[in-house]
Prior knowledge:
36% of the residues lie in helices and 22% in strands. The protein is an alpha/beta fold. The longest helix has 25 residues, at 62-86.
Amino acid sequence: xxNLNIRDAxxxxxxxxxxxxxxxxxxxxxxxxxxxxxxxxxxxxxxxxLYLHYQQYLxxxxxxxxxxxxxxxxxxxxxxxxxxxxxxxxxxxxxxxxCGYGFFLELARRRGWHVHGIEPCVHARDHxxxxxxxxxxxxxxxxxxxxxxxxxxxxxxxxxxxPNPLRYLNEINRILKPGGLLLLRVPHTTPIxxxxxxxxxxxxxxxIPSHLSDFSPKAIALALSxxxxxxxxxxxxxxxxxxPLCERLISVGSGAIADVLYTLSGKRLLLPGVSKTTxxxxxxxxxxx
Length: 289
């Protein structure tokens, strides 16, 4: 795999070739679009590489699977609360893309949603199937769901893994019903990496090649707008609870700070460097459920 010259790279959100180099990680360059702030990897790994990589991405040991459930539980519950409010406490059909072990779908089903999932990892898909949750193995693009099939689509820490996120967002818009809701959560690593660069501290925070991009609130809003979404809002949305104590303290602490700043600023200030949740709606009437 040969790296492209940065001048040959093109932003996968706005199409600009005006970029700045951030950092090199092995055979990959991480660059940032100067026009829209989208951060992405160049060159992209092959589809075959990514498929094999994601077969090992999620742990298969039972104890670590349960740790994964605990890590994401706060995010999942707060996201369901947001969906309930935004969808007027109605229940319909929900698709979780990159659903992993199916824990979010399990919670959504308990609240009355008809749930579907997409997951490439075989052992994660098997775990979800053991809870009688319908899981598709094809990618969203390959599956070709019917037009306007879902009321809600969710992606938790998935968009940054996709080679062409805008293509996926366009497809999600197609399969959502008019007034349908998209909820996604993505990391925002670049501010931390830029800070550590000042002190020449090396790091692997971008998690290349698992992560292929990094979204600022500006970049995610632009991508959603280009895909035809409206009523876009980004907010802290809770914090993960990793099993290692130090990581858990950092995550929960930074999440709490993000919540306080967001609230005190009148929902204007988003703490850089922490993961965020974004909701957006497909144009139409929400009473089309």
